Amino acid sequence: MRIRSGVAFAVKLIFLLSLCVLVYSAVQIFKAPVEARHALEDWAKKREEAPRHIVPEDETPLPAGMISLPAQPDDSSASSSISQSGTTHTEGEVIGEIYFPSLNKRVAILEGTQRPQLKRGAGHYTGSTVLGTSGNSVLAGHRDTVFRSLGSLKEHDLIEVETVDGKFVYEVTGSTIVDGEERGAIKESDTPILTLITCYPFSYVGSAPERYLLSASLIRREPLLQEQH
Questions:
Q1: How confident is the model at residue 229 (pLDDT cuts 50, 70, 90)?
Q2: How far is CA 42 from CA 35, 51, 53, in A?
Q3: Count H helices, E strands: the chain?
Q4: From residue 119, how far is each of 34, 52, 122 by CA, in Å?
Q5: Phi, psi angle pair for 93, to nearest 5°
Q6: Distances from the Cα of 85 to the Cαs of 34, 82, 165, 197, in angstroms?
Q7: Rounded to an integer, what distance in angstroms lies between the CA atom of residue 175 and that of residue 156?
Q8: pLDDT (tens digit per residue) in 149-192
Q9: Which residues are designated catalytic?
């Protein structure tokens, strides 16, 4: 009888230990996602509390005189541009979007390159060609916000631009670095190209002394797809 009792006790003990292992495993399985979520929440809190690098108020990605483009017609406005469809864009208006597939980043495009526009997105230099048309379309942006990681783009990377006129796909052709005081660095083109300009070096503290120019050529035009409702 004692032997049977001992065996029964051993069986019960093994069962209880197995049950404890199963319960512990189940708890860990359910606990892991919760702990992972808490870790992300902790990081989000630290990111919000981290000191921000503020773009100096006097930083100007596109200095006056750096663009050498044909003069606008006498009847054109220095604070507006006309799209291919005939729509007039006024300074400060959101006119489209620029998307960098390799960076998975989208940025709004506004008409004008003054401080108010550059705080909200990339600014289209009004005196340059309308986006998607023949000539040099110039977009300026701050290195610490909308054009962060611009230096990561490589030759042949794609850049997609959308406006009311359609979707325009550009291919990066190269980049150059010029002095911030250089004049006429951005020139007109006989073919449709896109020039992005921002301050450089990217990690420079204070008003950066140079400018980073990224060039891209238009390779494809596509109509805008209408959303299905």
A1: very low
A2: 10, 16, 21
A3: 2, 12
A4: 37, 15, 8
A5: -80, 140
A6: 53, 8, 6, 26
A7: 12
A8: 999 999 999 999 999 999 999 999 999 999 998 999 999 999 99
A9: 142, 199
